[in-house]
Design goal:
169 residues; alpha+beta; Immunoglobulin-like; 9-stranded antiparallel beta sheet; two-stranded antiparallel sheet; 3 helices; 24% helix
């Protein structure tokens, strides 16, 4: 009887411990970037939520990325949606800590899955606004489809950004 109760008490704990959770940590790594950087340093985080791919059958996880080239302190913001977004520039909405959406017209890379800031100034304004935030909600409307959203945890962003900036100098 005691063994049965002990096993029943542990089952929910074991089930919870094995459940995957969203990766809310910022990672810094070197990548080979095909969109013009060559070798780049990237600070990235997976979205806490998934979205459907263009066929609507598979879940994909968007990633917020801040990139720079070694030896160049210029930072560029982009979001890899891991699904078709558009063949043209598109508007991307950013909402920090439940505030109002700020809509920016962003370009798409040749894969048509990655939205990116069209200018260094726009990237820097966005990055500066993220430094003091706790949560970011990003919205985009893929061509001929309803809006998709991604959520990012900004905890640790400012410190991670400092590390990226130091590595890029």
């Amino acid at each position: 009887m005691k063994l049965t109760i002990l096993i029943l008490a542990l089952v929910p704990a074991l089930a919870f411990a094995g459940a995957p959770g969203p990766d809310s940590k910022w990672t810094l790594e070197t990548i080979d970037d095909s969109s013009g950087y060559g070798s780049a340093l990237v600070l990235r985080q997976d979205s806490a939520t998934t979205i459907k791919d263009e066929s609507g059958s598979n879940d994909v996880t968007p990633q917020l990325e801040i990139l720079c080239s070694p030896g160049d302190g210029t930072l560029t913001a982009r979001i890899n949606w891991h699904r078709f977004i558009s063949s043209f520039s598109t508007e991307v909405g950013f909402k920090i800590d439940g505030g109002r959406f700020t809509w920016l017209k962003w370009k798409l890379d040749p894969s048509e899955q990655v939205t990116l800031s069209p200018s260094v100034d726009d990237s820097q304004k966005l990055i500066d606004s993220l430094k003091n935030g706790a949560a970011l909600l990003v919205e985009v409307s893929p061509y001929s489809q309803g809006p998709e959203t991604a959520e990012f945890d900004l905890a640790g962003f400012a410190d991670s950004l400092d590390n990226l900036a130091n590595e890029c100098q």
